[in-house]
Amino acid sequence: MSIKAESLEEKIRVPEDVKVSLEGFKLKVSGKLGSNEYDFSHMGIELFLENDKEIVVRAPDNKRRGRGIIGTAVSIIRNMITGVTRGFTYKMKVVASHFPISVKVSGNEVIIENFIGEKYKRRAKIVGNTKVVVKGDDVIVSGIDKHAVGQTATNIEKATRTKKKDPRKFLDGIYVYQKVEGIEA
After folding, report:
1. Is the pLDDT of residue 176 over 70?
2. Per-residue pLDDT averaged across 95-101, rounded?
3. Residue 10 burial (CB < 10 Å; 0-12/13-18/19+)?
């Protein structure tokens, strides 16, 4: 006697102003702010469109791993749709109590000068089509790809990380203080 496990399925409705195309496992979502692309081939799920109005995500089993994969895939697709319709913004604050920090954008890098009095410049890579704007003590990171925006903000934070200093006492650095849906610059 064999017991066949049911597959788990979830549907995501596509808004009217968003266009979706699927080639194999590569999903492309286009909207008023631009387009996002993601390859789901590594996830082990089935992905298909119904009437160009719904994206159907199906996992092979209804067990814990299948439910986790479905949740991850659905979250990625919803973030893609939100990105092309509204976008994402991470606001960061420059905190300097010991030495004044200078932050500027040059090409696809954020350059941080005079961090804790260092002579050399610290650099953070800007990922994808993310836009970085420096306004006084604020660094605003925005774009339509949530992963790229988040990774850029992490790169900036990581560039100002200090070692062998007490983080309760030594607070100098650049930190994310607000995450917003929508592009602000």
Report:
1. yes
2. 88
3. middle
- CATH number of the domain bearing residue 21: 3.90.930.12
DSSP 47: E
Do 164 and 96 lie in one domain? The reply is yes
**How far from 51 is each of 14, 35, 56, 135, 173, CA to CA, in Å?**
10, 20, 11, 45, 49
Tell me the pLDDT tens digit for each residue of 28-68.
999 999 999 999 999 888 898 988 789 999 988 778 888 88
pLDDT for position 6: 66
Q: Is the pLDDT of residue 4 over 80?
A: no
Label residue 107 exposed, middle or buried (CB < 10 Å: 0-12, 13-18, 19+): exposed
**Residue 154 is encoded by which pair of tokens?**
């992490």
Q: Render pLDDT for 136-167 as a digit per residue (tens, 0 to 9).
A: 999 999 999 999 999 999 999 999 998 888 87
Rg of the Cα atoms in the chain = 21
Shared domain check, 22 and 79: yes
Concatenate the DSSP letters of all residues of 91-133 into one string: EEEEE-SSS--EEEEETTEEEEESGGG-SSPEEEEPPTT-EEE
**Residue 178: its H or E element:** strand 173-181
